[in-house]
Write the structure tokens for this entry.
Amino acid sequence: LRSFTVMCLQSEVPGSAEVQTMRVYLRVRPFSKEELSDNEDQGCVVIESSQTVTLNAPKGSANMKSSEKGIGVSLHKFAFSQIFGPETTQSELFDLTVKSQTHDFLEGKNALIFSYGVTNAGKTYTIQGTPQDPGILPRVLDATFHYSEGRQYEGMDLKPYLRNDAQYLDPDQVKQERSAKAAIFASVKEVREVFFNFIFYLSFFFFFPKV
Ligand SMILES: Nc1ncnc2c1ncn2[C@@H]1O[C@H](COP(=O)(O)OP(=O)(O)OP(=O)(O)O)[C@@H](O)[C@H]1O
């Protein structure tokens, strides 16, 4: 059964260090034309309700063979926070799963999202998507940039520190930072001028080699 992806979403509960919430979603992708022509659609994944699914072992599979011999069962029922069928669009999936967590994340709460499934299940399509049909990641980035519009800190007295922290600078430190920045820009300008002069002389000799 190569046609489904499981997506887990774990987020922090405000005001509690210990209690964690985890939601597990199932997405069943449509069969491709090649899979349909290979008769892979055997009704193995049956969505019973928005939260329960029944999996029937495919014909000829080890699971089916052992159940025919009376060992084990060929039918399994699973429950999920929510199940999304093959008709679900990228935007519907985002709106119904990650959207509210994105808002919480932007307000400072931690969240973890991961997808799980066998090869060809649709993990990349779900997380990354295509330029025409973006997945969760570009949609979260889009929401993040929209959220940060008009919220940028205009002051110059904050400096990134380590991986995810910032230091406040006093007025003297701000002055030092400004002069260090000016020195960097001046050296870049100098390098650029030397480079352009070099290109100019090179093209001059190329066009007038005998001068
Ligand atoms: N919901 C969907 N609608 C339409 N096509 C889909 C959907 N999900 C996946 N596909 C298509 O199914 C194929 C397999 O999907 P994808 O590459 O995302 O699988 P994967 O789980 O990332 O595989 P792998 O683990 O091998 O990288 C791709 O051609 C993809 O475009």
